[in-house]
Automatic annotation (TrEMBL):
This is YtxH domain-containing protein. The chain crosses the membrane at residues 6-27. InterPro entries: YtxH (IPR024623). Pfam families: YtxH (PF12732). Keywords: Coiled coil, Membrane, Transmembrane, Transmembrane helix. Residues 46-92 form a coiled coil.
Length: 98
């Protein structure tokens, strides 16, 4: 499996994870609707990953597992960053409301 394909999938999954994090933070829908949207998004990503890789099933599973592991760290970093920014905005908003 080439490094370029792995990097592409990593970028795709990291972007999706960040998008999911943002979507959860700013979701106007009920929790049940948000969970359905997230599941659908991950199902779509899984299908795209299967199409992109033409290797054996075991190679695909290993690549996806590795990429999910790496992207979960990126998602955590993004969520932490967003939480810090949200806390700053709340503090600024509290000052303005006084």
């Amino acid at each position: 499996m080439s490094g370029r394909n792995s990097e592409s999938i990593l970028a795709l999954l990291a972007g999706a994870a960040i998008g999911v994090g943002l979507g959860i933070l700013f979701a106007p829908d009920k929790g049940s609707k948000t969970r359905v949207k997230i599941k659908t998004g991950f199902d779509d990503l899984k299908d795209e990953a299967k199409e992109k890789f033409s290797g054996s099933k075991e190679e695909l599973k290993e690549a996806v597992d590795n990429l999910l592991s790496k992207s979960s760290y990126k998602a955590e970093e993004a969520i932490t960053f967003l939480e810090e920014k949200l806390a700053e905005l709340k503090k600024q908003n509290a000052k303005l409301q006084k």
